[in-house]
Amino acid sequence: MPAKPTPAAPETPLLHPRNAHQGRYDFAQLGQTLPALQPFVTQNAYGSESVDFNNPAAVRMLNRALLKQFYGIEHWDIPANYLCPPIPGRADYVHYLADLLASVNDGQVPRGKGVRVLDVGVGANCIYPIIGHQQYGWHFVGADTDAGALRTAKAIVGANPALTGHVELRQQADARHVLQGVVKPREQFDLTLCNPPFYASLAEATADNRRKQHNLGVKSGSKAAPGLNFGGQPGELWYPGGEEAFVRRLVQESAQIPTQAFWFTSLVAKKVALPGIYKELQWAKAHEVRTIDMAQGQKKSRFVAWTFLDAEQQQAWRAARWSKEKPAAG
Predict the structure, then answer these.
(1) Residue 106 domain boundaries
(2) Which of 32, 33, 242, 284 has CB 3.0 to 4.6 Å from 200, enough for a Cys bridge?
(3) Cβ(84)–Cβ(56) under 8 Å?
(4) pLDDT tens across 32-47, in order?
(5) Total structural domains in the chain?
């Protein structure tokens, strides 16, 4: 019988303890790290230094400064209209994934290039491989359907020696599939991660963007109101049926390769999507399912993790893959 999902952990208003992005951004320090950020820094309505988060150019420049200061990434940029991620929240997912591995490894986070992670939907920004490798030394495979996104991600990896040889990028040639066609026969991953498309259609994404701009006091049609102020290509933002349909497809395909990953995981933004995902996991006969809550200020998020490995298989996995290098303390 498949295990029932364990209850979600109590929500917390704080970022993960190992997350480097605690508290407010230090714009003075960031401006010294990347002088090109300085023209974008102004005083907000509360008298504090900030940038205009409705300005994609300002957000990209802020990300460049954060990646340089905290992760040693000298060269990072993405084309206009590609998704520009909030780095603190992305880092939280990575750190909680590290805790997930530690939870089945005597409290120790497995580190180093022997730990292989698959990023489903790596995007042009390549953010998860950057954070995961720079923080834990993991080796990444990033997959995406968008050839343009992969070109940009490859350029980022190639321009930063710290990443070269540690991030492999693959194109998903068939948008109907998630893992199929990407994971090679007998290939194994310690983790898979995914930030699935949030919306069910372009119309839904556009309507939500109008609502956000209205809340920010931006008038429709103004120069400060781009089509989608959060950026993003179709494959990054919407999928037929929305995130629940995407994650359920991910579950279905993970069940076809049950012993090729220890943990399969995906972010799930909408709580209403969880019952359908849990049902899919029961049908797929997942051995264990966990829901991990995260928070960034008032914004709540979570990811669902599942494994098909039983206790004996988990022990064999640890012995074969994680005992080769002495794990560092979490």
Answers:
(1) 84-329
(2) 242
(3) yes
(4) 999 999 999 998 878 8
(5) 1
